[in-house]
Structures are given as C-alpha cells and as structure tokens.
Amino acid sequence: MATFQDIINSDKPVLVDFMAEWCGPCKMMAPILKQVKEELQDSVTILKIDVDKNPQAAQAYQVMGVPTLIIFKQGQIVWRQSGVVPAGNLKQTLRKYL
Length: 98
Description:
Elements: H1 4-8, E1 14-19, H2 24-40, E2 45-50, H3 55-60, E3 68-73, E4 76-82, H4 87-95
Helix pairs in contact: 2-4
C-alpha cells in the first residue's frame, strides 16, 4: 500500500481534505469532493484524512481547523484553504495544477 508521502509526491495534483467526523462543514464537503472527483476523474487524487485518527498528519501540516483542504503537487503544498470550498472554485483551482 502506498504511503501518504508516496501519494503526495505524485505528478498529478493530490487534494487532501483534513476533516473530522463531528464537523458539520466537513460533511458539507463530502458531496463537493464527490462532484469534483466525478468531473476530474483520475487526473486528480482526493484523500480524506480524519484529524482525530491521524493527529500527527494534522500537526505536520499545521491544520488548526477542519475542514482544511491542501493541494499537493510533487510533494509540495501549492494551495491550501480552510472551510467549505464550492465545487466550482475547487475544480478551477485543481485544473491549474493538472
């Protein structure tokens, strides 16, 4: 199984959704991420990371609030935003890194 580092070092953009089960806005992101994935297909990887189950990952990227979305390209953070991001904005942002 690929590690988190393997995945984010990919040539294609990797969108990581740092979320928590108890977080209302995180639940709002789920259908948005599904829509983005349906449209962009395999040109982008989308990962969800539960900050309660993976506190070290949240700490490593200074995730203070959820949801926090981070786009990695070849292991580098190219974009990050906290809060709910509309599908249109997210697709537009991801397309810049394809």
